[in-house]
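Ticket 4471: requesting a sanity check on a complex prediction with NAI. Repro inputs:
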Amino acid sequence: MPAFTVEMDGAIAVVVFDLPGESVNKFSRAVKDEIAALIGQLRNDATVRGVVLMSGKKDTFIAGADIEEFVAAKTEAAFRTLSREGQKFLDELEAFPKPIVVAIHGACLGGGLELSLACHYRIASNHRKTVLALPEVQLGLIPGAGGCNRLPRLIGLRAALDMILTGKNIRADRALRIGLVDEVVSPAILRSVAVKTAAMLAESPVTRKPRGHWFLDRTRPGRALVFSQARKQVLRQTRGNYPAPLAAIEAVRFSLRHGLSRGLEHEAELFAKMAVTDVSRNLVNIFFATTALKKDPGVPPPAPEPLPVARLAVLGAGFMGAGIAVTAAEQAGVTVRMKDADLARVGKGLKAVSDVIQERLRKRSIDRREAARRIAMISGGVDYDSIRNADLVVEAVFEDLEIKRTVLRETEAVVRPECIFASNTSTIPIARIAEAAARPENVVGMHFFSPVHRMPLLEVIAAARTAPRTVVTAVAFGRSMGKTVIVVRDCPGFFINRILAPYINETGHLVMEGTPLEDLDRAMTAWGFPVGPVTLLDEVGLDVAAKAGKVMLEAFGERLRPAIRIDALVSDGRLGRKNGRGFYRYEKGRKAGIDAAVYGLLGVAKASGSGSEAVAERLSLAMLNEAARALEEGVIRSPRDGDIGAIYGIGFPPFKGGPFRLMDALGAEAVVAALERLASRHGPRFAPAQVLVDHARNGRHFYGD
Ligand code: NAI
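Returned structure tokens:
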């Protein structure tokens, strides 16, 4: 079946791209060969005076290159060829003697945008699904089909770097403003306007004024300034851990200096170089894993269908409850009823909901009408009567077993028998809560992270008596809230808090040895975490961390005994960022240096500092070893879930691929040797997990053997 069809509209050939058997259009070698042949025919057809290129898919134009085909390339030479072939085809398109107008409706990403750049005129629909982007750097790559060359020439250097280095989506109105498209029209008339335009351009070609600032975008010293600023900014943001943005800057610089033809060659070289880096491989694997998780129902086959959820109830209108309510309304489009113990708390919850929506309004990502519509979806009260019809109830009351059991009983007494009850507990085993249930098969854990509207991960906890239908419903609903969902076994700390516990405890040991607190943060941000462990403790809340530490100690014993008395800090009124006092001082809500008083409270003398590598090794291995244990115990279903969980749940450095990818890259033997060395120096808490010892002995990996 062909991917392209041609319909004549007067003297204009309308080429419609509709990849058979796929939900979106992707660019592959086969697709390229087909359209190249088609374009060749249109060139020779004297009745054709112009071409319109558009998509037959509902909401995508072209989603980018076919990544499956891309990863099959493997060698640098193969990637270079792939890039050169793509470039060559787009050169032909650009040199086509008749006007080609591209009509863009829906996502126009990566190779799709590069194709559009080679066409002669771009019209976008003003639909919210229409977005344009070059997201290659997010996969550790650079645009390799002319994007680094054509984009700066079209929209100016600074705007081009902004797109290429961030990969961010540009909506139609902004695309028009920066000159990325020539025209924006409503979807209903997109095709007819494109046809008319092609006919017009056949008479007189378009001329464009150069874009950007005359000095910064168009002179050599101005550009040099822009490039050096861009490099500095990239290094600040990536700490040198991501090579692709620097390669993209180089590709653009070279192109503007040496012209299009040599620029394209250099772009292909750099593209190929990036494609074979470990960083790119890791980022591509994360992309595949995330895509696979989106299709994973959460239970082994045959998976039952999830129950529809149209009405959500949230018990507890506190910090988490309000976050869950607003995210569910905004993302999943459900109506939400929040219930709390008294009206004042309900009011506070509704205010928190409204703050999130107002923030979006302020940032102009929604308009007034949409804000009002969203606010109207969420109501609150103190009675159970109003949650009678709920399909799903998420409980986010105080972290107290008896209170949770009470609200579970009270809920079951009023809701329909098939209603699902999900607890957002962070430490209490779901089975303990479910002991109070008349219908334990309907009880599940949905562990969200704070702030709920920003954190991408959800852990769904399947307890021993949770029915598969309950699990798949929680997974499907979490996904409709925009979350990446991993299903974990019911055990203390689930997965995320489980791997955090030894990491935080090891931080405590280092503190007690006198390591300066700022050194700990510095070592781990250099290692690739977005924040260091001390900042993380302040963010999580010291009261919350102290409580979690106790739960983990009770459950796992000595191995997870906290080394410092966070209690002592809590008693001193330090709850972390939320009350502006923690390990750090805060001024006007901003971190303002370590509070030296903390050393005294903990009874330690600050030493002169220790090597950042030694710190990073201890902290990271404590976490990796625990991840291996969690897999061994079946807390997570697969290394994939563990990697995605760690990356989305705690910001584990994506360029390292996740704990399991990293252990595979290091080799189990090396990991075990390092753990044994640490165990002999610091104690048995570093004893390697059995699965690592086995892998080391058998030369096995977590992935793929
Ligand atoms: P919070 O103290 O802000 O909110 C709890 C709310 O529950 C309060 O508004 C309280 O009035 C209400 N409540 C208490 N008893 C109730 C009852 N019987 N009926 C109705 N409402 C009642 O606490 P937060 O931080 O929102 O935590 C809630 C749950 O979420 C806890 O189980 C916690 O462990 C969990 N969690 C918290 C995270 C965090 O970062 N704060 C992260 C993940 C989970």
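Notes from triage: Residues 315-321, 339-341, 345, 396-399, 403, 407, 424-426, 447-450 surround NAI (CB under 6 Å). Leaving this open until the requester confirms.
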